[in-house]
Amino acid sequence: MRLTRQALRSTAAGAVCVALLAGGALGTPSAQAAPRAVAAGTAAADMVFTDIPGSGGITLKGNVLSPAHADGSRRYPLIVLPTSWAMPQIEYVAQARKLADAGYVVVSYTARGFWLSGGEIETAGPPDVADASKVIDWALAHTPADPGRIGMAGVSYGAGISLLAAGADRRVRAVVALSGWADLIESIYSGRTQHVQATGLLGGLGAVTGRPSPQMRRMLDEFLGPDVVAKEPELMAWGAGRSPATHLSDINAGGAAVMLGNAWGDSVFPPNQYVKFYENLTGPKRLELRPGDHATAEGTGLLGLPNDTWTNARRWFDHHLRGADNGIDREAPVQLKSRSDGGYEAYPDWASVERTRRTVPLTGSRTVRTGVDSGADGGVVLLSNTLDQFLKLPPLVSVPLLPRAYAAVWQSGPYDRPQRVRGTVRLHTTLTSDKESGTAVAYLYDVGPLGVGRLVSHAPYTFHGRTPGQSFGVDLDLFSTAYDVPAGHRLALVVDSVDPLYVQHNPVGARLTFSSPAADPSVLSVPVRE
Length: 530
What we know:
By secondary structure, the protein is α+β, with helices and mostly antiparallel strands. Helix content is 29%, strand content 27%. The chain has two domains: 47-352, Rossmann fold (3-Layer(aba) Sandwich), CATH 3.40.50.1820; 357-529, Galactose-binding domain-like (Jelly Rolls). The strands form three sheets. It has a ten-stranded mixed sheet, with helices on both faces. Strands 11, 12, 15, 16, 19, 20, 22 and 23 form an eight-stranded antiparallel sheet that branches. A five-stranded antiparallel sheet has the order 13-18-17-21-14, with no helix packed on it.
């Protein structure tokens, strides 16, 4: 693991440098500019860097943009922008300027523990939530911000902190949470499987750009260590406290209007957990899902380029903080964009997305040997789904050439018309292992006439403490998606035991058998749009 982390740290450093260079290309000031006082008449084009008191006596590095015509005679709605993981305070400058030009006071700040902000990285723990309230306090005291019209927004880490702050601070009236998490454990430990590339990358970025707290370092070591099962109760409790889903009742009680945005292929925070959270929100809400990977759907907007995600974020704030009658409240709240075409689809709720399902029987029995990568895999974190977003090039595999000793394969017949997969594909099967622990990874492919499979979705599954030789049922939700299977193509389900994205728990020599008992047949349930 040490060599892996060193490599990830080098990658992290490069990624941060690219982000900073992008900010420089926009003409943004250095993140180390000397702080100065916020003047009431500051023009929107002039970003003011300042120190902001955080919780526990630390100092947060922030910047402020106010409307050009602000002269102290009136108050303006406030938007607070906590930075993404490992990003400095200049991250949102392009969007902050647009918001300020539209009549908002915008305060962005570097999250504690990163770059020049004080403290240590607490991974969206209580100090981070308290920081958000302290930034609001400071903004109300030092800018022409209106205490009755406060919103928060952010990408990734900033999204999670914004949602948590909405549950803790009733002053927050609207939230836009992009590429964030609602359930931290389900995001990085779905199917009881460690997402090693995602968590390793986050750990490396944190080490390069900040000061991880002792608790964060210990949790990361335990999570990626060999004894994760014994540490599960502690890890679960740690993750639950940092999950907006845990604080759902407080968020609902506060009544904040919540807009959620994510990408189908988010390899850090997959969309399933956001969908579940959205369904349980009771206040004004909106869910937008688009092609891409982590933060790529809104990434061009951070560079000041036209971007649907940020356009709708602005509309959300305009309606809920300024009372603008822009129609966003009358639109269908669930907005999906397929990975296969450029159009949007509107739904009144998530149940309507998955209203129609078709089943693919998984007949017969398949036994696979574990410990060898069959060639089917979910790709590379941040890279593969970005290629799919921009080039329509998801991970590929030749299904006929997959070694059946290491990969179980089932295929549908060719479809006579397109199959528009929408939502969460569900796998039910019966599994028998000759060991008490094991890992399987399920992949759904769109297979063309030449046998080339394009990855539609996938998900990992790990079990522990099972009696060797004793069968048990498995129900696995693959990561939600929107993908059009062309007429003449097939759907193929492939299950193997190794994927570079995940930690596998198959003992040496283990075998996994997938069967379909008559009393409990194995089946793949595929949601489709008619």
